[in-house]
């Protein structure tokens, strides 16, 4: 009811779009035709009503009802666009062509089409660069992961969007950009050998610098590691520096991307507060079997340590592992028999690279978090995630605020050498479950009655209801493995 609207308008922010068509083109009609009901309201009130409408269909019906409503509703109708096929791209291009101002209403544009619907997508090339209020842009090229390309069929689904021109001509208003090259490659579908067409080159950063004043969040994946162009070794070109992105707050980078090398070389803006690194390109390229898989987390952590060491002002770091099995990543409790073998395979104790990185960040008052990505359905996907693919959720399994705790288990009695020395000053305690199941030397506990590592792990991860009941062991410290 009309009398409610001033009240609602107070609660919600009214967006002040200029009702260009309604007012400027139709003053005579507005004056001549007596308006009743909704049309008797002033534009500001009508806008506050329109602002409450979530349904695109309703907005379109309203726009079709009269010219005044058309002028008022169009900014809402055009604000967010999803294009999933070439026919739609054509009709959008035609509508934008009829009324230029519409391009300026678009704030969020997603172009995500399958290969069989690609024809017509190219019509958008001309208009994207006119969208001077664009804030969020998602462009997805046809995905060669789909089954029809797995049987020796040549992949020809190259993108219909001209990225090179686009990056140079985009309006200088982007706040967030996700850009990723594909990680999946196979014979008949290899990434380009021409390095100038790749995002690993200084030209990519130069193009981004057009967004220097607005860009706040950037996410980048450089592509499959075995097909990456060589990293450029010189940083001579001062125009291709990450630090020029002076409003950048958040970076999400594949571990392979050249941008991570920029950070390592201390090239990033003072505005940066957080960095997330994902391991998916390396994990996707593990070919050496189980030993490589075991070494992988340590390699990722040591690489990130080198990056942080190169940064004069480190930022909060989270590392996203694509392996959903956190037990496999870092929290395995090596039993005495395999501990030595495992350490020789992974060049040292399992969690040491994690503590090293966590301490390094802590010395600058920064924070380390480790995450895994998990899918709720039985299918899993690799980024960039395509239209219709499930985006994984993230689960944190390490948080530097609990320095020795991984996957909910406190490893201090195993990993903190100084603490272990302290514990060894007291009598050796062994809990009944460990004595029965594993042998007494496997019981790692602080000697203060708190839960031992095995029991804590069993109750937290397997959900088993176990309780440590301690006896003082008759075998002294130091003689436990014999
Ligand atoms: Zn125990
Ligand atoms: Zn126990």
UniProtKB/TrEMBL annotation:
Q: Which PROSITE patterns match?
A: FBOX
Q: Where is the F-box domain?
A: 35-81
Concerning Pfam families, the annotation shows:
F-box-like
Tell me the superkingdom of the source: Eukaryota
What protein name applies here? F-box domain-containing protein
Give the lineage.
Eukaryota, Fungi, Dikarya, Ascomycota, Pezizomycotina
């Amino acid at each position: 009811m009309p009398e409610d609207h001033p009240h609602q308008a107070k609660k919600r922010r009214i967006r002040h779009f200029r009702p260009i068509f309604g007012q400027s083109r139709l003053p005579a009609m507005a004056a001549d035709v007596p308006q009743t009901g909704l049309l008797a309201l002033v534009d500001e009130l009508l806008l506050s009503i329109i602002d409450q409408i979530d349904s695109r269909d309703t907005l379109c019906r309203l726009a079709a009802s009269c010219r005044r409503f058309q002028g008022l509703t169009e900014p809402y109708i055009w604000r967010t666009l999803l294009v999933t096929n070439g026919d739609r791209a054509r009709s959008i291009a035609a509508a934008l062509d009829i009324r230029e101002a519409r391009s300026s209403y678009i704030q969020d544009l997603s172009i995500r089409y399958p290969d069989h619907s690609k024809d017509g997508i190219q019509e958008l090339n001309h208009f994207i660069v006119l969208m001077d209020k664009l804030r969020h842009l998602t462009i997805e090229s046809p995905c060669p992961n789909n089954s029809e390309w797995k049987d020796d069929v040549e992949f020809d689904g190259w993108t219909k969007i001209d990225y090179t021109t686009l990056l140079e001509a985009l309006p200088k208003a982007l706040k967030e950009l996700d850009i990723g090259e594909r990680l999946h490659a196979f014979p008949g579908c290899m990434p380009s050998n021409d390095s100038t067409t790749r995002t690993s080159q200084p030209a990519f950063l130069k193009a981004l610098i057009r967004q220097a004043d607005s860009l706040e969040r950037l996410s980048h994946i450089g592509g499959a590691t075995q097909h990456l162009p060589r990293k450029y070794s010189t940083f001579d070109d001062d125009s291709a520096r990450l630090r020029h992105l002076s409003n950048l707050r958040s970076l999400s980078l594949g571990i392979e991307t050249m941008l991570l090398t920029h950070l390592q070389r201390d090239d990033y803006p003072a505005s940066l507060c957080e960095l997330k690194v994902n391991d998916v390109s390396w994990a996707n390229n593990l070919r050496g079997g189980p030993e490589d898989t075991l070494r992988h987390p340590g390699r990722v952590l040591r690489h990130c340590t080198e990056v942080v060491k190169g940064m004069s002002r480190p930022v909060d770091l989270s590392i996203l592992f694509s392996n959903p099995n956190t037990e496999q990543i870092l929290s395995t409790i090596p039993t005495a028999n395999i501990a030595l073998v495992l350490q020789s395979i992974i060049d040292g104790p399992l969690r040491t690279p994690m503590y090293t990185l966590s301490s390094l960040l802590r010395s600058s008052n920064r924070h380390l978090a480790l995450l895994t990505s998990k899918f709720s359905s039985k299918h899993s996907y690799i980024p960039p995630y395509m239209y219709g693919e499930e985006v994984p959720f993230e689960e944190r399994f390490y948080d530097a605020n609990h320095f020795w705790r991984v996957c909910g288990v406190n490893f201090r009695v195993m990993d903190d050498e100084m603490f272990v020395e302290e514990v060894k000053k007291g009598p050796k305690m062994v809990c009944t479950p460990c004595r029965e199941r594993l042998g007494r030397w496997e019981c790692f506990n602080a000697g203060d009655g708190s839960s031992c590592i095995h029991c804590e792990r069993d109750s937290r991860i397997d959900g088993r209801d176990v309780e440590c009941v301690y006896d003082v062991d008759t075998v002294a410290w130091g003689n436990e493995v014999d």
